[in-house]
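Note to self: keep these together.
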Amino acid sequence: MNTHQRTALDLAARGVPALPLRAGKVPFGNCPACRDNACGGRPNMKTPGPCDCPRPCHAWAAATTDPAVITGRPWATAWAQARAVAYHPGGAGVTVVDLDHADAVAWARRTLPATRTVLTTRGQHWIYQGAMSSANAVRPGVDIKSTMAYARWLGPGTGTMTNLPDAVRALVAKKPSPVRPVTVPAPAGGGECPHRMPAYLARGIAMAEQRITGTTTAVHATVYRTFLAVLSAHGRCGCLTDAHVGRLFAAAQAKGETVRHCNDAWTNALTRLGL
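Structure:
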């Protein structure tokens, strides 16, 4: 057992999910059994949850507190080649504000409440109690590492850990992108809705919004299928307005879709239906 493996076991005993890093401070690549998501794991690590494979091949999702996995045979080669240890901050219930240079550190001292601090090669990690969404480059030299992210373990640091402040959460808060107007072709018959029931359209749009909002996986595919279903029912009768489309786009953007993705999905659905 080498130093990195012992460090991982120590972290695991304290409830901190750990994983090995190879040269370059990056996780180990997908193992053959998991390449291209063949194992049924989480593609591109975009959804929360543990890795379905015992090997360290899904970055943050491979982080574990299970000593049997850390010392088990599938990870033996990884620990032998490891150059550092990382951990999943969100899995430990904390958020790391990664300050990459002196200017970023100075900004944090002016702006954020003091908390536990860990020195890094070029700057500092400020660690707060509480998890949140992760994001890179929220401002010059500042990354947020918490859920669905990993951070290099550089020691426990110094100082008392402070509860995650709103000022840090606000760094990741997304402002909704403006919805680009989309024109739905009216039918040759003049645009009269064959359903003759405004409540039918209202219910359909509400159900479509709910379908998008409620999805937790395959957001791109869900948005496309939902747009396709709405256009299948209402795309030829001319009853859809920009307001209806805007509601669908807003629901998709709330799940992380960009305006470009929304427009691409809408255009692909129109093409698929020959509209």
